[in-house]
Amino acid sequence: YLTDMVSLSVGDAHPVVTVTLVDPLEGLGVNDLAQLAGVRQEVQYRILERHMAAGVSVIDPATAYVDYGVLIGEGTVILPCVMIHRGVQIGEGCEVGPFTQLRPGTELHDGAQVGNFTECKNSILGAGSKAKHLSYLGDAVIGKRTNVGAGTIFANYDGKKKHKTHVGDHVSIGSGSIIVAPNRLPDHTTTGAGAVITRSAQIEPGETWVGMPAKRHRSKS
Predict the structure, then answer these.
(1) What are the phi and psi torsion angles at 47 (to 5°)?
(2) Cβ atoms within 10 A of the Cβ of 188, count?
(3) Residue 170 a catalytic site member
C-alpha cells in the first residue's frame, strides 16, 4: 500500500516530509468498492456544484449522475433520476428528466426537453424540440420544434451496422411510431400513432403517414 512507503523510506534512511492538504478529502483512501463508491459520490457532488454555480438547477443531487466533461447551459433544469454521460452537450433552458439517460454523442439545443424514461444516444435534438415519454432516440438528427410522441423508437441497428435518421423542423411523430433507419422525415410531416416508417418510405414535406407499414395518408396542402 502507498501508506507503507513511509515506514519503508524511514527504514532505508530516506528523508520523509509532510504536506498539509488544503482539502482533507483529497487524502481519502480507496481500498475496496465501498470506498470507491464513497469517493465517487463526493466527486459527483462537486461536479453538480460547479453546474449549479453556473446557473443549472439540479432538483435532487442525490439521484443525478452527471459525468465529468458534460456541458450544460444556464437555465437548464435537471430533474431527479437522470444519467448524463461524458460527451453530452446540453444547451440553455433545457429540461432533462425524470428517469432519463443521455449517452455519449447526444446534443440538446436550447429549450429542448427529454424525460420520463427516454434514452438518447449519439443524437441531436433541435431547439425547442421534445421527447418526453418512453422513447429511444438512437443516431437521430432532429430539427427545431419537433415533437417525438410517447413510445417512439428510432430503430438504428440492423444487426450489423448503425444507421442515421434525419428529422426536420416542426415534425409531429405520433405515439408508438417506429422509424427504421436510415430514414428521413422532412419539415412539417406527421406520423400517426403506431406508424412504422420503413426504409422504403419516400416522404415529402408536409405529408401525413399512417399504418404498419406506414403509407401516405394525406399529401401536403
Answers:
(1) -60, -45
(2) 18
(3) no
- Residues 190, 175: contact at Cβ < 8 Å? no
| pTM of the full structure | 0.89
The predicted model gives 91-112 an average pLDDT of 98
**At 210, phi and psi to the nearest 5?**
-140, 160
> Long-range CB contacts (< 8 A, 24+ apart) of 130-138?
138/162, 138/181
Tens-place pLDDT, residues 47-88: 999 999 999 999 999 999 999 999 999 999 999 999 999 999
State how far the Cα of 49 lies from the Cα of 58, in Å rounded to an integer: 9
Q: Please state the φ and ψ torsions of residue 155, each to the nearest 5 degrees.
A: -80, 90
CB neighbours of 149 closer than 8 A, spacing ≥ 6?
Answer: 133, 135, 172, 173, 174, 175, 176, 177, 193
Single out the catalytic residue among 14, 85, 133, 170. 133
* DSSP structure class, residue 17: -
Cell of 6: 513511509
Nearest CA to 182 among 156, 159, 160, 208? 156
CA nearest neighbour of 153 among 201, 120, 124 = 120
The Cα 128–Cα 205 span in angstroms is 20
Q: Tell me how far apart the alpha carbons of residues 33 and 99 are, in angstroms, rounded to a whole number.
A: 25
On whether the CB atoms of residues 214 and 199 are closer than 8 A, the answer is no
Distance linking the first and last C-alpha atoms of the chain: 74
Q: Is the CA virtual torsion 123, 126, 127, 131 positive or negative?
A: negative
Query: Where do we find the cell 432532429?
Result: 142
Amino acid letter, 65:
Y
